[in-house]
Amino acid sequence: MSEVVEPEDDSQKEVTEGKPAAAEPAKQETPKAGVHKNIWTWIAGHKKVSIPAAVVVVLAVLAAVPFTRYLLAGLALSKNVTVVVTDTQTHKPVTSANVALGGKTARTDSAGRAVIHARVGNATLSISKTYYRTATSQVLVPIMSQKQPYSVMLVATGRQVPIAVVNKLSGKPVANAVFAAAGTQVKTDAKGEASIVVPASSTSFAATITLAGYNTMAV
């Protein structure tokens, strides 16, 4: 018995072949990526505005960090810094001491006080005087006004000699008189008093007393 083979249905074949293929879904940008793209597009078209704004933002971020804040401020700001120097033994002011801070120098007055105009930020404070040990420390020159003076104690390496200067005619104490001896000097306070440090081995020494408006005296 012969096998009958039915012919293919051309109409069905045409329908199948003619059916369009399913289209792939279009890729959509995430909202985040779209926002970033829009921002960069805006920046590219507004360079005159965006670049200065970016600089301001960077400076604001740096200013928020204490370390970089003082680095930036130190480029433009300087502040007065007050230092008070006293003797560890007598607890009296150390006058005519050399004060160095941030590349600036000054000398202490009759009250042991010195004022230096230094750049804002961290700096090395150094105090020195003949017959004293040099004192060095790290200090911060604040952006705002200094709340209280930096207090430094100096250790004498020689012998303390107290002095007093009075006006020969009136008998009143003479303030701010400069007493110089043995390669060092001091200034008298409001009471006309001071203490000078000389070499421990010195038993006697020549000295002079000077003050504007007065004759220089050798003692």
Compact overview of the structure:
By secondary structure, this protein is an alpha+beta fold.
Q: Which keywords apply here?
A:
219 residues, alpha+beta, four-stranded antiparallel beta sheet, 4 helices, 13 strands, 23% helix
Can you walk me through this structure?
By secondary structure, the protein is α+β, with helices and mostly antiparallel strands. It contains four helices and 13 strands. The relative contact order is 0.11.
- Tally of individual helices: 4
Mean pLDDT, all residues? 79
In quaternary terms, these chains amount to single chain
From the spread of the alpha carbons, the general shape counts as elongated
N-to-C order of helices and strands: HHHHEEEEEEEEEEEEE
| Estimated structural class | alpha+beta
Number of distinct beta strands: 13
**Low-pLDDT segments:** 55-59
What portion of residues belong to β-strands?
A: 25-35%
The separation of the N and C termini measures: 156 Å
Q: How much helical structure, as a percent, in the residues?
A: 10-25%
Rg is: 41 Å
**Major sheet:** 4 strands, antiparallel
Strand order of the largest sheet: 3-2-5-6
Please give the structural blueprint:
Blueprint: H1 10-18, H2 31-45, H3 47-64, H4 66-73, E1 78-87, E2 98-101, E3 104-107, E4 113-119, E5 121-128, E6 135-141, E7 150-154, E8 159-164, E9 178-181, E10 184-187, E11 193-198, E12 207-210, E13 217-218
Parallel strand pairs: 1-7
Antiparallel strand pairs: 1-4, 2-3, 2-5, 5-6, 8-11, 9-10, 9-12, 12-13
